[in-house]
Structures are given as structure tokens and as C-alpha cells.
Design brief:
- Keywords: DNA recombination.
- A hairpin with a 2-residue loop joins β1 and β2 (69-74).
- The chain has one domain (12-215): hpI Integrase, Chain A, CATH 1.10.443.
- 40% of the residues lie in helices and 6% in strands.
- By secondary structure, it is mainly alpha-helical.
């Protein structure tokens, strides 16, 4: 798949570094100020292909069960079409159900409730935390990864959408459901809105997205020392 806006997808080794970094390990950084969204947002971006603003706006009511399949409903990104994305098994394995109960118990409606907005958007805060700014190191740099490679292509939080796109492209083609890929990415085909495929079809396209680290756990994140 082509890179977008000078960005590229992460390589497999880069994904390994990201999802085995300190956020997903056992030790905190010195002077780290951990937030729940630090743990969940990269995972959600990788397994749903959603943008930061979409994830920041996600509410508990956007988690729906369609035909016995749990999905996220995304409706918040102006240029991207509304869509339902099945929740990947790896997110449940990481503790999503327990986290949802945590959010409910605190009385919050927004899933990533501790992600603040800046000028009404969440993406700016995410960008600075993930990619850094000026002398401030981001999660990328702390994982030993550069913002720009030798070819001049950038990696950023939106690169995880490209990783999602690469993988569902393969599974959609193999299952003869290319339009399902367009739907899951919120894209039109020939200027027309793509009709929602069956929930079972969507799940079959999303499920093969590769699990990078089977030991990722929200409870482990909370217990870091």
C-alpha cells in the first residue's frame, strides 16, 4: 500500500518495538505521568484503523453488538464515512471489558476519558505524546524509533492506520470482499458510499490483523513499578 501524506506504515520490527515498549512492559519511566489512554490509544489505532480524533470521541454507547459481534461505531471524522468496526479479540485479551467497567464505575461516557482535547481536538495531544515536539521526546523516540526514515518518510500515530489497511487489504481480497476494506476504512468507492457488509464478513476481514504482543494487559500496565 502507498504511504499517505509522506507517511508510511510501521515495519514489523517497529511494531514489535512499539508494543513491547515501556507502556506495555513492567517498569515505569522516571517522572512518567501515566494515563489510561497512553495504553489504549495505540492498540485501538492499530486494531481499528481509526484516527486519533475518532478514538478520542468514542463513547461507551458507540460500543454496539451487531449480530452477536461487538463493534465500535465511528462517526466523528469529517472526511471519513461512518462505519462499524468489529472489536478485535486482542483488545478483549488486553482487558478491554474490565476497562469498560472501570470507565462506567467512574461515571464517564467517553472511553478514553483522560485524553484531553486541545482546541476541540484530541489529535494534537496524541501527536505530541506519540511523536514528541522540539526537545520533548515522544513515545516513538523512547522506543528507539525515528520520526523520519532515510527515505524521508514519516511515521506517526496515523501510521498504525496504514498497518491496519495493509492487513485488511490482504484478508478482504482473499475472501473476495474488497468493498469490506473500503467500508472499514470509511472510504467511498467511485464517489459512492459503500453499503455495510454483513457483520460476519467484517469480522472475517478484521480478525486476521496480526497480534504483535500476546502479553499486553491493562492490569499489567496498572501494576508497573
Amino acid at each position: 500500500m502507498k504511504s499517505q501524506f509522506g507517511r508510511r506504515a510501521f515495519t514489523h520490527m517497529e511494531l514489535y518495538s512499539l508494543f513491547n515498549g515501556y507502556i506495555y512492559g513492567d517498569e515505569k519511566l522516571k517522572r512518567e505521568q501515566p494515563k489510561h489512554w497512553h495504553f489504549w490509544l495505540p492498540l485501538l489505532a492499530y486494531y481499528t484503523g481509526a484516527y486519533s480524533d475518532e478514538l478520542g470521541n468514542l463513547t461507551l454507547s458507540d460500543i454496539e453488538k451487531m449480530d452477536s459481534i461487538h463493534t465500535f461505531r465511528f462517526t466523528t471524522h469529517g472526511k471519513i464515512q461512518p462505519r462499524l468496526v468489529p472489536i478485535h479479540p486482542a483488545l478483549w485479551h488486553a482487558g478491554l471489558e474490565t476497562y469498560i467497567q472501570h470507565v462506567k464505575q467512574l461515571g464517564h461516557d467517553r472511553l478514553l476519558y483522560d485524553l484531553p482535547s486541545k482546541s476541540g481536538r484530541y489529535s494534537e495531544k496524541v501527536r505530541i505524546w506519540f511523536s514528541g515536539e522540539g526537545k520533548r521526546l515522544g513515545y516513538l523516540q523512547r522506543c528507539g524509533l525515528p520520526n523520519i526514515d532515510q527515505q524521508g518518510l514519516k511515521t506517526a500515530i496515523s501510521s498504525l492506520r496504514l498497518n491496519f489497511e495493509q492487513q485488511i487489504y490482504i484478508s478482504a481480497i482473499q475472501s473476495g470482499q474488497r468493498s469490506a476494506m473500503s467500508y472499514l476504512l470509511g472510504l467511498k468507492e467511485e464517489g459512492q458510499v459503500v453499503e455495510k457488509p454483513t457483520s460476519d464478513t467484517l469480522q472475517k476481514v478484521v480478525k486476521p490483523v496480526r497480534v504483535i504482543n500476546t502479553k499486553i494487559s491493562w492490569q499489567r500496565y496498572l501494576e508497573r513499578h
